[in-house]
Amino acid sequence: MADSEVVNGAAENQEVPPSGNKSGRASLLDSGEDFTMLDDVEDDVDDDLPPLEDAGGGKKKDSPAKDATKADQTPSIEQEEWLDVLGNGQLRKKVVEAGAGPDSRPQRGQNVTIHLKTSLTNGTVVEELPNLSFTLGDGDVLQALDLTVQLMEMGEKALIEAGAKYAYGALGSSTPAAPPDSDLILEVQLLSADDATDLELMPPSEQISLANRKRERGNVHFQRADYAFAVNSYGIALQITEATSRVDISQQEEEELLDMKVKCLNNMAAAQLKLDHYEAALRSCVSVLVHQPDNVKALFRKGKVLALQGEYAEAIKTLKRALKLEPSNKTIHAELSKLVKKHSEQKGAEQAMYKKMLGNPTNASVQKHRAKSSWSLSWKWLFGATAVAIGGVALSVVIAARN
């Protein structure tokens, strides 16, 4: 298949997410979307400098009274209380430097820019990004950032402790380098927050680029088995492709937007299948086929969904159509063979059930035949006996007449 979306969850025609390197791809239909496996890279070890008071040769220690006075005037990092963001101890935030006040906090949907430094709990720096921009709440970054930046004030500097669940999870990350199940320390400063551009006023080229970034983020979520987040990212990308533009758009740009929409729908169907959301996955496949009736990936997934719903006859019909378009596709062959066997077994089970419900038709037929035969013999015997009796009477009459 030539396009870049996936069939049943396998990578193809990858567009590498901004943070990944292309190293290989799985078979087209077997296991995923258009995802790229990320290469392992060497850890970038850059130990933080020790705190000033631990570096030696510092100021002479003040008396407890002076310490208390300083604490009242300038709270230190140690004296700041941690905010348990979710109440489970896995995501905590501490204000290091206050911002412009609660009214300056960004809102979900705004485009924010932050300075970010990410470290492991042993002090190893994972990455440092002086100007990281993303849409707040869209799942474009680590969940820890999406949840905590909206609690920050403009200009605020904060320290964030993020459990692995809200960072790179059980898989870890190769770029940036973070081991599996690693907790992170995030040093964040909120630099700016601006309202997102009205999609209707956005130039088509920017619209296509933005939708593609959201789709690629969805691919990253899919690769990490975060299927619900993947569906969310694909949904946002779809909204972008479907936005009515007030700006002049060329025929080529319209085709590119439609192609992006089809990719997002196909990828969304794959994620919905992983979540066992069969009706939603079926709707996504049907939407693809409305625009591209011969889209093999959509036909393949539609067949998979129908089979999972027990609609074997319709699933076989759909997969045969896909196979006709790609006769050499072994994955479709295998799926079709499996469904034909299941359909045959289902029909056999139904026939057995009907026989059990209606009784054994063979025995009933034999019994009916026997009963019919019995009645036939009885009538023949009766007819023969009657004939003999009539014959006897006639002979008696003849003899009597002669006498």
UniProtKB/TrEMBL annotation:
Gene3D superfamilies named among the record's database cross-references: 3.10.50.40, Tetratricopeptide repeat domain
Repeat region (TPR), residues: 296-329
Biased composition (Acidic residues): 31-51
Region (Disordered): 1-77
Protein name listed in UniProt: peptidylprolyl isomerase
PPIase FKBP-type domain location: 109-194
EC number: 5.2.1.8
PROSITE patterns xrefs: FKBP_PPIASE, TPR, TPR_REGION
